[in-house]
Amino acid sequence: MSSIDSDSDTAQDAAPQSNNKRRWTPLLLGGLSILAGLLAITFPLIASLAAGLYFAFMVGTIGVFQVIDAARHQDREGTWLTVLTGALAVLTAVLIVTFPVLGLLSLTLLIGSFFFADALLRLGLAFRGKAPGARVSLVVGGVLSLLIAAAVLIGFPSSAAYVIGILWGVHAIFVDVGMAASGWITREA
User: Fold this and answer.
1) How far from 172 is each of 35, 52, 134, 160, 183, CA to CA, in Å?
2) Residue 138 vs residues 120, 123, 141, 152, 153: alpha-carbon distances, Å
3) pLDDT tens across 153-183, in order?
4) What would the pLDDT profile of 108-124 be if each residue is shown by its tens digit?
């Protein structure tokens, strides 16, 4: 009986230590992510190039898996389209890695176009919608998206050197402030 009691005491002692580690993890990860965001804003060209290479890696990986999936399921309709799409994704990844500046220019145009389309959609919904409470939010979001689109597209091509890095840095800071705060709150509780 004493060995059973000592095992249960050990398990009970380990539980608070495990909970303490779990409480500090979001705080630590949030703090590191905020630091990474500040570094991305401080060195936007390096962060932009890194984001472009990360994008290339993701697109290339998806392309490889599409080609493998198509090879495994050749009897499926549209297999050639899956192979073509996968091969295009791999080619895109290779081009971005081979010519990172051109990849950065392309991604910057894509981001600027996204914000422009987002602005048009939000403003269109604001003036077409029937919910007056959402109208203010949609107009504010649309105007902000339009300002970002203008900053990106009017400053192009020089904006490609900093846009992606700064956007990633701001995202890392604001999103992960919440993670750090939740870690702090659970640590205090």
Assistant:
1) 9, 16, 27, 19, 16
2) 10, 6, 5, 21, 22
3) 998 988 888 888 888 888 778 776 666 666 5
4) 999 899 989 989 998 88
Provide the phi-psi class of 129: left if phi over 0, else alpha when psi is between -120 and 50, else beta: beta
Distance CA 7, CA 68 (A): 50
Q: Is 187 helix (H, G, I), strand (E, B) or coil?
A: helix
CA distances for 93 relative to 98, 104, 115, angstroms: 8, 12, 23
Q: Which two tokens stand for residue 96?
A: 């971005």
Based on the number of CB atoms within 10 Å of its own CB, is 159 exposed (0-12), middle (13-18) or buried (19 or more)? buried
Contact between 145 and 138 under an 8 Å Cβ cutoff? The reply is: no
Q: What is the token pair recorded at 6? A: 């000592």
